Structures are given as structure tokens and as C-alpha cells.
Amino acid sequence: MDRLVYLDHAATTPVAPEVIDAMLPYMREIWGNPSSIHRYGRQASRAVEASRETVAKLLNCTAREVYFTAGGTESDNLAIFGAAYARQEKGKHIITSVIEHHAVLHSVDVLEKQGWEITRLPVDKFGLISLDDLKKAIRPDTVLVTIMHANNEVGVIEPVAEIGAICREAGILFHTDAVQTAGHIPIDVVAMNIDLLSLSGHKLYGPKGVGAIYIRKGIKIKPLIYGGGHERGMRSGTENVPGIVGLAKAVELAIADMEVEGERETKLRDKLLDGILERIKDSFVTGHRTKRLPNNASVIIQYVEGEAQLLRLDAVGIAVSSGSACTSGSLDPSHVLTSMGIPVAFAHGSLRLSLGRSTTDEDIDYVLEKLPPVIELLREMSPFREGVSILDCCSDDCHCDHG
């Protein structure tokens, strides 16, 4: 094994050394309960409030609009269930998309069983929703629209500002899952007309088990966790002070280098995508080529299974994922890819390579050196190696991006 290359940053990021250093004092010396009024508690409380200010800077909101949670999934659940239960007297209709993270999809599924009506907007071949479809779907009893900022599998960035403007004009709450975007691309909740936003620490070089939710001032949602009234009654439970401090430090680092790092990762991403398409026949990019996250390189390589690619690449020191890491144990094809019109047989050959701060030109060169022979070997073993090309099998109205 010549080197180790980690290209699964969309699943989780390594905790930055600066983040670890920032957290350690809150496990060793400043370990008080932030709800206590003595000096130990006050020290912890000051750290939590300072962290709240830092996260607010990332989103362009006030600190009192930021609430800490245990992660992106909890934030999604709080936004969706909290908004639905608080507004059910107005109506029981919610709009989402077919390519959301399961933290959103499974939440609206539960609400549907409880009597809410759910409209799931389709996407085009690039994974983008139609704003016209959104406008047509809005009804007098619509209480919430929840559309992700960028997809976790293919990295496509949805037109969040336009969605927010439509919802604000209609008087409907707009929630966006920004777990993949917070700390990676600019977010301005005011300019984007966002009412509720979810983010997670471990996607931006912070610790696991901590996240945040932005709730616009004046928005009423019902809590999901009851107890001592922590987080101003929005989320009870003693705050994870080390985790919150770590999240804030990760946000601080992200704010400082977002623009430069985004440009660097975009160049490496395009080098990787171009290299794969040039070296591997019957491969194509999934998602929009430019309206995508700087670090997301998602492709489909025909006639080979994604899991087999992962195992072979891992054997040569390359860590990637096939579709979403959250559902990689499932034998079902990606709901994102099939919703984009990609045939099931090809969706199983998906590969997601997500770059990060540690990714170098040499890493990309190494992947482009090792991946083609892996694919060649797997195709020789595959019963579908003499199969029909996607260009031949797809109908005229296929939604695949044939390039």
C-alpha cells in the first residue's frame, strides 16, 4: 500500500487539531454544569454563549436564534415535528423533495401516518427541484417546506434563496438541511429567507454528537425533548459543553478559510472527475457539474457494484463511499439516484468521493492511478461486462446526465 487517501469527508470529517485543543479544557478544568450559578457553572455558561455567538456569525443571525442539539438528525427532527405540531391548526400539508436525507424523509413519513399530507417534489436529471413545481404545490393549508441546501450523495446545490423567497411571500415556514453546506459554502439566513436551518459539527471538522438549529426570531415550534428547560426551553438536557466549544472552534476555522479552501477543493474535484471520465469507459458524473459542492465528486461506473469498488479501493488505501454513508448497509439502490432517473442497475455502481482540507494533488493522482485497474479487474469478474451501455438502454426521456 503506497499511501492512505481519505475521500469520504461527506460522511464525516477528521476533528481538527485546533478543535481538540479547544475542547480539552472543558473536560479537564472547566467541567461545570452551565445551569449552575456558582463559578464552575458560570465558566461553562460563558463558553456556551460565546460558542452561540460564533455559530451565529456563520449564518448571519443573532445568537439567540441558535440552539444547540446532538446533531443534524435531531435538528431536522426538531424543525419538522416542531413546526408541524405548532402549526397544525392552520393546516397539515408539508412540502419536501424526493432526495432529502432520511432524517427528513422518515420524519415526514411519520407525520403522514399521523394525518399530515406530504407533497414530495420530483427532481430533474441533475437532482434539482423545479421552482414552478414548488409554487404549484403550495396550498392554503401548507405549513412547512423542507428542502435541503445541498444533497449529501451527489452534492447538487438547490436554489435555496429562491425557495425561501417563494415561501416567505406565501407565509410558509421554510426549513433547510444545511448539514453538508454549513462551513463549506456561504450561508446567509436573512438573504435566503430561511426560517429554520440544521447543521452538524462532524461535517465541518468538529466533534460528533453536537449540532445546532437556527430558529428565526418569532417562529414558534414545539420542543421534542422536555426536562429542565435548557436552551431556553427548546431542547432540555444538560448542554454538551466540550462538544459545543468544539463546534464553535470548527466554525471559526471554517469562516477563516472557506473561500480559499472552496476554490482549492473545486480544482481538485474537477481534476478528479475529468480524470475518471478520461480513464474509465462507461462512467459519468451524477448531479450538476457546476451547481455542486466544491468537495463532492460523485460518479457512476457501469457494470460494477459500488460495494465491490469500496472494498477493492480500501485494499489499496483509498477510503470512499457508495451513495450515502448513512445507508451504505442497505442493498437497495440510492433513492437519490433513482429519483434522478438513473436505472437501478447503474445506481448500484455509484461512487462518492468527497474531498477535504487534507486532500492533495498527489492524493488525486494516486486515486486516478489505482481506480482504473480496480474497475478493469471488477469488470472482468462481472457477468454484466458485455452488457448494454447506458447510452443504448436509456429511453429518449431518460433523466441521466450522459455528458
CATH superfamily of the largest domain: Type I PLP-dependent aspartate aminotransferase-like (Major domain)
Q: How many helix segments?
A: 13
Roughly what fraction of the amino acids lie in strands?
A: 5-15%
Please list the strands of the largest sheet in the order they lie side by side: 2-8-7-6-5-3-4
Radius of gyration: 22 Å
Number of domains: 2
CATH class of the largest domain: Alpha Beta
Q: What is the CATH third-level topology name of the largest domain?
A: Aspartate Aminotransferase, domain 2
Spatial separation of the terminal alpha carbons: 34 Å
Task: Give average pLDDT, whole number.
Answer: 93
Counting helices, strands and paired strands, the structural category is alpha/beta
| Shape verdict | globular
CATH architecture of the largest domain: 3-Layer(aba) Sandwich
Order of helices and strands: EHHHEHEHEHEHEEEHEEHEHHEHH
Low-confidence stretches: 386-403
Describe the largest sheet: 7 strands, mixed
* Count of individual beta strands: 12
Percent of residues in helical segments? 25-40%
Helices and strands in order, then pairings?
Elements: E1 5-6, H1 17-23, H2 25-28, H3 39-59, E2 66-69, H4 72-86, E3 93-97, H5 102-113, E4 117-121, H6 131-137, E5 142-146, H7 160-170, E6 173-177, E7 196-200, E8 211-215, H8 241-279, E9 283-285, E10 296-301, H9 306-315, E11 318-319, H10 335-339, H11 344-347, E12 350-354, H12 361-381, H13 390-393
Parallel strand pairs: 1-11, 3-4, 3-5, 5-6, 6-7
Antiparallel strand pairs: 2-8, 7-8, 9-10, 10-12
Helix pairs in contact: 1-8, 3-8, 4-5, 8-12, 9-12
